[in-house]
C-alpha cells in the first residue's frame, strides 16, 4: 500500500544505476535476473508519435482503492491511487518532464514566469480555450480560490497540505481574466509545481464543498476525459473522452480504473487480460511471474519511492513518548528487512539514512548515526524510560501497563506483512509486544492512517519529483494545518527551519536547512525510512506512451495501442 504525496509531498529520490545494471528484461520467458534501471531523468513509456497510435481501444488500469474523495487536495484523499484517476479529467496547469522539471501545461497555461525576485512575483497567462464542463471559462478566479482554500488561513478547510500555497501573499488579476500575478511573501524557491491540479471556484470557495462535496463524485471536470461510470460496488471508475475537450483528442475510447485487492490479484489480472499493466516494485514473486509472461515488457525508472515505518506521536498512542520512539527505532534492524524484500532486485540494497533525500540526488547525506540498530542500547533506554522487564516476563511494563504496540498494515500487501513480522520478532527480543493488525486496504488511509488509528504503520511514500521542501513541509510540519504529518510528530524548531528552507533561493543553503530538519526528525523519532523501492512496472506489449513515466507527468491524450 502506498500514499502518494504528489507535488505537495514530493522528495528527490533515486538509487544508483549500477545496482540494477545486471541484465535486459524485455519480458523474456523464464528470466529471473533483475532488469536494468534507468538513469535519473529518463523514463520507460514505449514512446510513439500520435500517428503511430491507433484510434480507439481500452486501457484497464489497476488501482488499490476507490477514491475516498474526488477532491485530491482534501485530507482524506491521501491514497496514492487517487491522483491518476482525478488527473484524467481535471486540469493539470503544472506538469513535469522526465527530469522532474516543472513547466506549464499548454492546454491550460500558455506561460508562467518569474517576473520579479524582490518582491517575488510570478505571472501566469492562461489558455482562453480552457473551459469547465459546465461551460464556465477557467480563469484567474479559480486559481485565487484554490489558493485561499489551501493557504491555511481558514481552518474550516481540511487540505492534505498547505505547503507552498501558504507562502502566497496575493493573487491579482492582470489585463483580463486569463492573466494574473502571484506574489510570494515569504519567498518560495520551489513555486513552479504549484497548481499541479486545479478545481473550480464553485468547489474551492466553500469549505463544506471542499471537504465533503466531492466525496461521492466529481461535479465539474475539465480534462481530456470525463467520468463515464462510477461503480461503487466493484470500486471501479470508467472515464471516456470528453467531446468538448479543446486539445488533442484522446486516442483511447476509455480508461477503466479497476480495483484489485492485492499485488497477486493484479498480476493474475495481467496474465488473464483483466489488467494491462501491473506494478512489480519490490515484489520478487511478481517480478518472476511477469518476467515469464509472453507479450509483457518490464519497464523501469527512478522514482522518489521508499518504504517506511511511521510512528504515531499523538496523545491517543502509546508512542506519544519521544524517548520510547527512539528506543524502539534502535531495536529495529533494517538490514534484514531490506535484504528480505529487495535484495534479489537490488543486491546492494541498504537502509536509508535520510527522510527527505535519497542517494543519487543532490542534497543527500546520511543523518542516521546514533539511531542505528543497537538492541543493547535500546534495552537500556527502555529501562531508563521506566519500561522494565520483570523476572520471567517477556513483555516490558510501566505503571502496570504492558508495552504493547499496534502495527497497522493494509491487508493483502505481502511486503507490509513481511516487514511487520520481521519487526515483530526483533522487538520481541527487547521486550516489546507488537500486535499486527491488517486493515481493509480500500479504507486503510481514510479510516486508519489519516485519523491516527495506529501506533506504527508500514507503507510506501511515493513522490512525483516535486521539490523537496514541499514534501518536507507536508510530512514534518505540526499545527492545525499539518494534515500530511500522519503521526503528528514535530516541533516549532522544525517548523521554522522548513519556513526558512521554503524561502531560501540558494539551493545549497536550502538543502543544508533540509538536512538540519532531517537530523531533528531522527531525534524526535518521527519515522523510520527502510529502503528505496525499485520502480518496475510490467506492461502489456503494444501499449504506447505509457508504462513507467518516472518523474514525468502522464499525458493521457497520447496513451493508446500501437497500430
TrEMBL record:
Keywords: Signal. Residues 106-480 form the Solute-binding protein family domain. Pfam families: SBP_bac_5. One of its GO terms (biological process) is peptide transport. Gene3D superfamilies: Dipeptide-binding Protein, Domain 1 (3.90.76.10), Dipeptide-binding Protein, Domain 3 (3.10.105.10), Periplasmic binding protein-like II (3.40.190.10). Residues 1-24 form the signal peptide. Transmembrane segments: none annotated. It comes from the Bacteria. The keyword Transmembrane helix does not apply. One of its GO terms (molecular function) is peptide transmembrane transporter activity. This is Peptide/nickel transport system substrate-binding protein. It comes from Kutzneria kofuensis.
Amino acid at each position: 500500500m502506498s500514499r502518494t504525496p504528489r507535488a505537495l509531498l514530493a522528495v528527490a529520490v533515486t538509487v544508483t544505476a549500477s545496482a540494477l545494471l545486471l541484465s535486459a528484461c524485455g519480458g523474456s520467458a523464464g528470466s529471473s535476473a533483475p532488469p536494468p534501471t534507468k538513469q535519473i531523468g529518463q523514463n520507460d513509456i514505449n514512446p510513439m508519435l500520435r500517428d503511430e497510435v491507433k484510434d480507439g481501444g481500452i486501457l484497464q488500469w489497476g488501482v488499490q482503492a476507490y477514491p475516498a474523495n474526488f477532491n485530491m487536495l482534501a485530507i482524506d484523499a491521501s491514497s496514492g491511487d487517487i491522483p491518476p484517476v482525478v488527473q484524467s479529467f481535471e486540469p493539470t496547469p503544472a506538469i513535469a518532464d522526465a527530469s522532474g522539471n516543472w513547466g506549464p501545461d499548454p492546454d491550460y497555461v500558455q506561460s508562467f514566469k518569474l517576473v520579479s525576485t524582490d518582491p517575488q512575483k510570478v505571472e501566469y497567462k492562461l489558455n482562453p480555450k480552457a473551459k469547465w464542463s459546465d461551460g464556465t471559462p477557467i480563469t484567474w478566479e479559480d486559481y485565487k480560490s484554490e489558493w485561499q482554500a489551501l493557504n491555511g488561513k481558514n481552518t474550516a478547510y481540511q487540505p492534505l497540505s498547505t505547503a507552498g500555497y501558504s507562502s502566497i501573499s496575493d493573487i491579482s488579476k492582470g489585463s483580463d481574466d486569463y492573466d494574473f500575478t502571484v506574489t510570494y511573501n515569504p519567498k518560495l524557491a520551489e513555486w513552479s509545481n504549484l497548481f499541479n491540479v486545479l478545481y473550480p471556484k464553485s468547489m474551492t470557495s466553500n469549505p463544506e464543498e471542499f471537504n465533503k462535496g466531492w466525496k461521492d463524485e466529481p461535479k465539474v471536470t475539465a480534462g481530456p476525459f470525463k467520468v463515464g461510470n462510477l461503480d461503487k460496488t466493484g470500486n471501479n471508475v470508467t472515464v471516456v473522452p470528453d467531446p468538448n475537450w479543446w486539445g488533442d483528442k484522446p486516442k483511447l475510447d476509455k480508461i477503466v480504473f479497476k480495483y484489485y485487492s492485492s499485488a497477486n490479484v493484479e498480476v493474475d489480472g495481467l496474465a488473464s487480460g483483466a489488467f494491462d499493466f501491473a506494478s512489480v516494485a519490490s515484489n520478487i514473486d511478481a517480478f518472476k511471474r511477469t518476467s515469464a509472461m509472453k507479450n509483457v515488457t518490464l519497464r523501469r525508472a527512478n522514482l522518489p519511492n521508499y518504504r517506511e515505518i511511521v510512528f504515531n506521536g499523538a496523545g491517543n498512542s502509546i508512542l506519544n513518548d519521544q524517548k520510547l520512539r527512539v528506543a524502539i527505532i534502535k531495536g529495529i534492524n533494517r538490514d534484514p528487512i531490506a535484504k528480505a524484500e529487495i535484495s534479489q532486485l537490488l543486491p546492494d540494497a541498504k537502509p536509508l539514512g535520510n527522510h527527505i533525500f535519497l542517494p543519487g540526488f543532490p542534497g543527500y547525506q546520511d543523518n542516521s548515526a546514533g539511531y542505528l540498530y543497537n538492541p543493547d542500547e535500546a534495552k537500556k533506554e527502555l529501562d531508563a524510560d521506566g519500561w522494565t522487564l520483570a523476572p520471567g516476563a517477556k513483555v516490558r511494563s510501566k505503571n502496570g501497563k504492558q508495552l504493547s504496540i499496534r502495527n497497522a498494515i493494509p491487508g493483502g500487501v505481502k511486503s507490509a506483512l513481511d516487514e511487520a513480522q520481521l519487526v515483530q520478532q526483533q522487538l520481541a527480543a527487547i521486550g516489546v509486544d507488537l500486535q499486527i493488525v491488517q486493515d481493509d486496504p480500500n479504507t486503510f488511509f481514510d479510516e486508519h492512517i489519516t485519523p491516527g488509528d495506529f501506533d506504527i504503520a508500514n507503507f510506501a511514500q511515493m513522490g512525483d519529483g516535486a521539490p523537496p521542501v514541499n514534501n518536507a513541509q507536508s510530512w514534518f510540519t505540526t499545527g492545525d494545518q499539518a494534515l500530511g504529518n500522519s503521526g503528528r510528530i514535530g516541533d516549532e524548531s522544525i517548523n521554522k527551519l522548513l519556513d526558512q528552507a521554503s524561502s531560501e533561493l540558494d539551493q545549497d543553503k536550502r538543502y543544508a536547512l533540509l538536512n538540519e530538519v532531517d537530523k531533528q526528525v531522527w531525534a524526535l523519532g518521527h519515522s523510520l525510512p527502510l529502503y528505496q523501492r525499485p520502480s518496475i512496472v510490467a506492461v502489456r506489449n503494444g501499449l504506447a506512451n505509457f508504462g513507467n513515466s518516472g518523474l514525468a507527468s502522464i499525458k493521457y491524450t497520447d496513451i493508446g495501442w500501437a497500430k
